[in-house]
Design brief:
The structure is a single chain. With 880 residues, the chain is mainly β. 12% of the residues lie in helices and 38% in strands. Strands 38, 39, 40, 41, 42, 43, 61 and 62 form an eight-stranded antiparallel β-sheet that branches. A six-stranded antiparallel β-sheet has the order 1-2-3-4-6-5, with helices on one face. Helix 2 runs antiparallel to helix 4 and helix 6 packs antiparallel against helix 7.
Length: 880
């Protein structure tokens, strides 16, 4: 919460706000002990890594041109209060050189302490009556060096391979490329940009957007100051701005010496207006000749055509401490990247990163966002997503999300076109689950109406991921068909009735496409995936036909169901992500005290696991390629038997949530092989084929099988009521009709039958966080009661084999145990105790029936989020 004048933070009284940024707010304050004015920088959260870096960096720097650190609080820094103005140009040459030498003194002092600033820019340099003050070491990279001692656990750098650190107008090429070995020579490059701006009043590298600025830094030659400064000084700046760090000045002290020499150089090296011994008439004649020559050359037909911009590639990492979901989207103007992710607080929401900054921020009000792909308004102001069964739009500048309409099925991406100055137009969006085709709604709200209809002859499952063409009437969309040869990209029109749309497939693919106009002409480019390769297909907008053959842009691009991991904008920016393999894990048994009883087998990418009723086998979700399958592992003497790892399912889709029948003869599981996540079973000995148990238009996750074999328990995702609990009768030759067990406005997940068949334990977020509850089964007349078991949060309940103890995972990762009883039809629970600590919210785990052993997939090695790959000027890759 922002501070107000009069508030106190320790011994510091807030006087007035000064500014705010990604790290927090800055205030003018008074130290009531010493009666002095200070600048107080308060973090938005507890002391974050950037604050710690700045504190450590500034604390070891004692220099008149570097802002002094007075004090450090729990979540704030107290700095010297500097009265001055931000450095701005153009400045007279003598004044510019005077201030430049002071800046070099400051960064030389930092470099000698092993500190690279990495964000040197005019905004971080204040000009006071006594000279300059260099500020903001929040992005500093610190190396162990003489005079600098870091704690053993102190971070030595903010950047990891693949991340951009700095401000793009002043960043060295090696920073833009995300190289991990950026050193003090990056500050030399930034200083060259600052000095150029001091002399000319303009940035050294300009552009109309982020992509063009980065391309200018990477490719454009260093600009000249020859019109306002001596030629010798021009040489100094150009060497500062060399693309290769080895070609720059190697340290700030030598650069300062060279700078002083440049302005004191012989007159012959100076700018013509400063050169003595030349008459103004001669200079004027020469200037006229040069101007005439330039005019002729600009007209001459033999003038060389400028070379097209080359593609520039680099990587950016997701926000630290977040787990990114599969979907992401680049804004139409290419300035923002949005992606859904789970933050360190465990909340799933939308995150936003401006492409010219270093930090991602969570978008308030997007909690409850579905992981399905989302989309942008054409002016890049709004992002549209589904939450709580509603299609919503959020202003990226802030404010609560606004409801557009209610939806009856999961929204899978869409497109927004503007038809007027007021932004009116149309939104079209796709559904999953066989509910219908593409729908249309006004951006201002209303009832959605169908635009396309499922084609029964084509065996359509669903239509998704529409994208408007420039005319605002036609659009491309993806058809998922039960017949693979019919799946692909089709052309639709707002002017046709749903059942009259064109039935000719444009492109064969298993995922949706993106479309980018080619510079306002009659052409455009369709981007789509085919077997992991991102392809670009030229498209004639007037004739509505493809042109030529598709050309490859990138390989090993990932996808999740019908969504490909790529997004492009008209300004030449392309973002894609590879296949995320995840962290590898080993199956490990633990006793009740948390003692490891031995690692089981090799490490794999593991998900859900389920022990057989006799605890001699385990079914595990395991990813060997792009999609997970089920594998079976057999134990012998508590350990994995050699050679018993066998693959159980083979369908090229995503199989998950294995559940054993009480006799161990069958395994039920969830799979999306028919367009929606449905329920299947297969004999545990591998014989026969997968058997479809239940298909519907909703996503279903099987969670348990009753011990008497009569009921299959599963969660059903409803657009209005979220995850509900249902049971499927299994006491006949074929499954019976499913029946609802618990439907509410909250999530009910991970449900488990008690072994005696009287109770169901599950997790629900009805209090705002997941807790463990127990209900009777079957529910008596009137619905029966329900009992809260956990306190302080709980997930993934498991029963002991005699139904007298319940286990669950606390938010901090503790494995909790609580005694329970159900005598006389009334459920009772005792006091929960922590057995041992594992991972918070593990992907899967299970307890042996005796309650003495617990099986967990334990990560092996460090897990890293897959970075975003950025390609600027990507269109040059397809030009002939």
């Amino acid at each position: 919460m922002p501070l107000s004048p009069g508030d106190r933070l320790g011994p510091y009284e807030i006087l007035a706000p000064i500014g705010a940024g990604g790290m927090g707010e800055v205030y003018k304050a008074r130290d009531i002990r010493l009666d002095r004015i200070v600048a107080l920088k308060k973090s938005k959260t507890d002391f974050d890594p950037r604050f710690e870096r700045e504190a450590r960096a500034v604390a070891v720097l004692n220099h008149p041109n570097i802002c002094t650190l007075h004090d450090v609080g729990s979540d704030y820094l107290v700095m010297e209060y500097v009265e001055g103005a931000e450095l701005k140009g153009p400045l007279p040459l003598p004044k510019a050189i005077e201030l430049a030498c002071q800046i070099l003194d400051a960064i030389d002092a930092a470099h000698r302490k092993g500190i690279t600033h990495r964000d040197l820019k005019p905004a971080n340099i204040l000009v006071t009556k006594s000279g300059v003050k260099v500020l903001d070491f929040g992005l500093a990279k610190m190396e162990r060096a003489q005079g600098l001692v870091l704690a053993a656990d102190a971070p030595t750098a903010i950047s990891i391979e693949g991340t951009i650190t700095g401000t793009i107008y002043y960043m060295a090429p090696e920073q833009l490329q995300g190289k991990p070995d950026v050193d003090s020579r990056a500050d030399i490059f930034a200083f060259g940009c600052v000095l150029y701006e001091m002399l000319t009043g303009k940035r050294a590298f300009e552009g109309s957007n982020v992509a063009s600025v980065i391309a200018a830094v990477m490719e454009r030659p260093a600009p000249s100051v020859g019109e306002v400064a001596p030629a010798s000084l021009d040489r100094v700046i150009k060497k500062c701005l060399a693309k290769d760090p080895d070609e720059r000045w190697q340290n700030a002290r030598d650069l300062k010496t060279e700078l002083a020499w440049a302005v004191e150089a012989p007159a012959a090296t100076h700018h013509p207006q400063q050169t003595r011994g030349y008459s103004l008439g001669i200079i004027g004649t020469a200037a006229a000749a040069i101007a005439l020559s330039a005019a002729v050359m600009s007209w001459a037909p033999w003038k060389a055509v400028p070379e097209a911009p080359k593609p520039v590639r680099f990587q950016i990492a997701p926000a630290p401490g977040v787990k990114v979901a599969n979907a992401f989207s680049l804004s139409p103007d290419g300035t923002r990247l949005a992606y859904p992710a789970t933050g360190a607080d465990g909340v799933f929401r939308l995150w936003m990163r401006a492409m010219d900054t270093l930090e991602s921020r969570a978008v308030p009000g997007t909690e409850g966002l579905l992981a399905a792909p989302f989309f942008w308004s054409p002016d890049s102001r709004w992002v549209v997503f589904e939450a709580g069964g509603k299609l919503m739009k959020a202003d990226v500048a802030g404010g609560p999300p606004q409801t557009i309409c209610a939806v009856s099925a999961t929204v899978v991406s869409g497109s927004w076109v503007s038809h007027g100055r007021n932004g009116d137009g149309a939104i079209i969006f796709g559904n999953s689950g066989g509910i219908g085709g593409i729908h249309r709604v006004s951006p201002e709200g209303g009832d959605p109406v169908p635009v396309t209809a499922l084609n029964q002859a084509r065996k359509d499952n669903f239509h998704t991921q529409p994208v408007f063409l420039p005319d605002g009437r036609h659009f491309l969309y993806f058809v998922n068909s039960a017949t693979p040869e019919n799946s692909g990209i089709y052309l639709g029109s707002l002017d046709l009735k749903p059942d009259r749309q064109n039935h000719t497939r444009l492109l064969a693919t298993a995922t949706g496409a993106d479309f980018v106009p080619n510079g306002g002409g009659n052409g455009g480019t369709i981007l789509f995936l085919r077997e992991g390769t991102l392809l670009a297909q030229q498209f004639d907008i007037r004739r509505l036909k493809t042109i030529g053959e598709p050309m490859p842009l990138a390989e090993q691009v990932g996808n999740y169901r019908s969504f490909g991991f790529f997004s492009a904008s008209a300004n030449g920016a392309l973002v894609w992500r590879g296949v995320s393999t995840g962290a590898t894990s080993q199956l490990v048994w633990f006793d009740r005290e948390g003692k490891r009883l031995g690692a089981q087998g090799d490490a794999h990418v593991l998900g859900d696991i389920a022990l057989s009723p006799d605890a001699m086998r385990v079914a595990a979700v395991r990813t060997e390629g792009s999609n997970p399958d089920l594998w079976l592992t057999t134990f012998s003497g508590g350990l994995v038997s050699p050679g018993t790892d066998v693959r159980f399912t083979f369908d090229p889709t995503r199989d998950s949530r294995p559940v054993w029948s009480p006799d161990g003869e069958h395994i039920a599981f969830s799979s999306d092989r028919a367009g929606t996540v449905d329920l299947y079973q297969h004999a545990s000995n591998g014989a026969g084929r997968d058997e479809l148990l239940l298909k519907s238009g909703h996503t279903k996750e099987v969670t348990d099988w009753s011990r008497d074999g009569r009921w299959l328990l599963y969660s059903d995702l409803d657009a209005k009521t979220r995850h509900d609990l249902w049971v499927l009768p299994m006491d006949g030759v074929t499954p019976g009709q499913p029946m609802p067990l618990l439907r509410s406005d909250f999530d009910e997940l991970s449900a488990r039958f008690s072994p005696d068949g009287h109770w169901v334990a599950y997790q629900s977020d009805e209090t705002g966080r997941y807790e463990i509850y127990v209900r009777p089964f079957p529910a008596p007349a009137g619905g029966g009661g329900r009992w809260a078991v956990s306190q302080g949060g709980g997930m993934q309940p498991r029963w002991r084999g005699d139904s007298k103890e319940l286990f669950y995972i606390a938010p901090d990762g503790d494995v909790m145990a609580i005694p329970v009883s159900g005598g006389g039809g009334a459920f009772q629970s005792g006091r929960s105790t922590a057995l041992f600590r594992n991972l918070p919210n593990p992907p899967g785990w299970d307890a042996a029936p005796d309650g003495k052993r617990f099986l967990f997939p334990v990560p092996v090695g460090d897990a890293q989020e897959t970075p975003f790959n950025v390609v600027l000027n990507w269109m040059s890759l397809i030009r002939k």
